[in-house]
Specification:
The chain is α/β, with parallel strands linked by helices. It is 44% helix and 18% strand. The protein is built from nine helices and six strands. The radius of gyration is 15 Å and the shape is globular. The model has no long low-confidence stretch (mean pLDDT 94).
């Protein structure tokens, strides 16, 4: 299990603190071949998840990828997997990633990082249960609202609302990107800019 010590602070204080690359891990949750087709606004989810993965690659953020019962639901979609050629997804049966020992081990190896950035699906099931699990392990959680999705728009909205009420910071892909980049003119900004146009 994760043993990152973190003090309990009010939500407003967590939301006020800027993201720092050295604190962050990107979690890419269950963007799979058989799960993706019915997802509401799936093109947006894939495009923004790709942006977050490209940012993670540029800033050298650790990335942890999960699949839900890949034997039945397929592998990570090629548009995502192609950006993560060296990463083997953690395959799980649990909806929340923190119920899976292999996922917890992967996170615990990244000691010193206290913030989990989330993208993937479904918002109200695996993303939400993973977010709650991360909060219960003492991590701070930021969810890119435009890089998560559900089959029904209502469930997407309710999942985001529940996560915010639980203490997750609900953000957007661009908010995360520009906050982590911090300034224009840097090599990282110049490398990322080509994907933001």
């Amino acid at each position: 299990m994760v043993t990152v010590p973190i003090e309990v602070v009010p939500y407003s204080e967590i939301a006020r603190q800027p993201l720092r690359a050295e604190d962050c891990i990107l979690g890419v949750i269950d963007i799979q071949e058989r799960l993706l087709p019915p997802i509401h606004e799936k093109e947006r989810l894939v495009r923004n998840s790709q942006l977050l993965i490209r940012l993670a690659n540029i800033l050298e953020l650790p990335v942890v990828v999960s699949t839900q019962y890949a034997k039945g639901l397929g592998q990570t979609v090629p548009a995502i997997a192609s950006l993560l050629p060296k990463i083997t997804p953690v395959d799980k049966l649990e909806f929340g990633c923190f119920g899976n020992g292999e996922f917890c081990s992967a996170i615990s190896l990244l000691s010193g990082r206290n913030t989990l950035l989330l993208c993937g699906m479904e918002t109200h099931i695996c993303v939400m249960q993973t977010a709650l699990g991360a909060l219960n392990q003492g991590l701070r959680v930021h969810v890119a609202a435009d890089a998560v999705g559900s089959r029904a728009e209502l469930n997407w909205k309710l999942g985001l609302e529940r996560m915010r009420e639980a203490g997750c910071v609900i953000s957007s892909t661009e908010m995360m990107i520009y906050e982590l980049l911090g300034k224009s003119g840097s090599p990282a900004f110049k490398e990322m800019l080509q994907y933001l146009k």
